[in-house]
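Weekly sync, protein design subgroup
Attendees: M.S., D.O., the rotation student, P.L. (late)

Item 1: inverse folding check
M.S. brought a backbone from last month's batch and wanted to see whether the design step gives back something sensible before we order anything. D.O. pointed out we never logged the input encoding, so this time it goes straight into the notes. Structure tokens as presented (288 positions):
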């Protein structure tokens, strides 16, 4: 049974959908490039506002810009919901959640001072850059990395559990050896030291004073160098395994499936290769 399309079949909502969601038309491409420039400007504005000297001289201007950017992203998010047939399906999609997160910090900041700086999360919206500029080779590499991480998740989970048990043992031993008189006030505090030492960070806020404690710390530091290489090796092996059987190259099309919002479909495709939903015909004025 064919899925009900998410895009309007006709009218101004369909035209709005093509402009906002499609990057293969001149209007859609222009809109997306303008959107990316505004995203970068809004992130830079938030970053500059956090600098005390700049905030002292240009604070009111930056705050006004923040309001303008927030209103723009709010209207844009509402328009995205308006022009799709099933707004909640888009709102729950990956990009729908990111679009919502781009506007929430401003409104939360009205009640919790300082939280508006979280607006920098808008930088995630630049993920659309790969679609708009047709950097499909990067999309393919990202998918390969994603597959490698998924294939490695069980091994990495076992590794992390092993490390967690190790730091608990090291922290307990250091608590027994050094004790509160040398700064190791409790086992959780000692576990914190073990984590810092095993990851080779070494803040230096807690250090062993006795020879047995220093010997244990030396063992932990040496083990740390070996442990760091383990997850890197696991993921690298999966990437190499995936590279042995190369995936078909993704075409440069940026047609968006109105059912699952996935991309990368061929120009002549009639159905989505991910969900099987019917794909609308490419809009007129497609950018070659």
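Designed sequence read out in the meeting:
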């Amino acid at each position: 049974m064919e899925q009900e399309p998410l895009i309007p079949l006709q009218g101004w909502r369909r035209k709005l959908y093509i402009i906002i969601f499609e990057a293969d038309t001149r209007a859609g491409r222009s809109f997306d490039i303008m959107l990316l420039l505004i995203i970068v400007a809004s992130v830079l504005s938030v970053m500059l506002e956090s600098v005390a000297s700049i905030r002292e001289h240009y604070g009111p201007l930056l705050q006004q810009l923040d309001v303008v950017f927030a209103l723009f992203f709010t209207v844009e998010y509402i328009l995205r919901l308006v022009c799709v047939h099933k707004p909640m399906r888009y709102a729950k999609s990956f990009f729908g959640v990111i679009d919502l997160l781009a506007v929430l910090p401003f409104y939360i900041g009205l009640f919790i001072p300082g939280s508006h700086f979280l607006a920098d999360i808008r930088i995630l919206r630049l993920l659309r850059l790969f679609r708009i500029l047709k950097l499909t080779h990067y999309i393919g590499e990202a998918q390969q990395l994603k597959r490698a991480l998924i294939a490695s998740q069980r091994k990495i989970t076992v590794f992390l559990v092993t490390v967690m048990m190790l730091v608990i043992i090291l922290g307990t031993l250091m608590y027994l050896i050094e004790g509160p008189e040398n700064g190791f006030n409790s086992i959780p505090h000692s576990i914190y030291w073990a984590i810092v030492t095993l990851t080779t960070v070494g803040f230096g806020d807690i250090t062993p004073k006795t020879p047995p404690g220093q010997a244990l710390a030396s063992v932990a530091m040496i083990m740390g160098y070996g442990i760091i290489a383990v997850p890197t090796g696991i993921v690298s092996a999966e990437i190499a395994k995936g590279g042995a059987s190369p995936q078909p190259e993704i075409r440069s099309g940026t047609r968006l499936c109105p059912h699952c919002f996935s991309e990368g479909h061929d120009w002549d495709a009639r159905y989505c290769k991910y969900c099987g939903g019917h794909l609308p015909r490419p809009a007129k004025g497609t950018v070659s």
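Discussion: The two ends are 33 Å apart (CA to CA). Confidence is low (pLDDT under 50) at residues 1-5, 245-252.
Action: P.L. to compare against the previous round before Friday.
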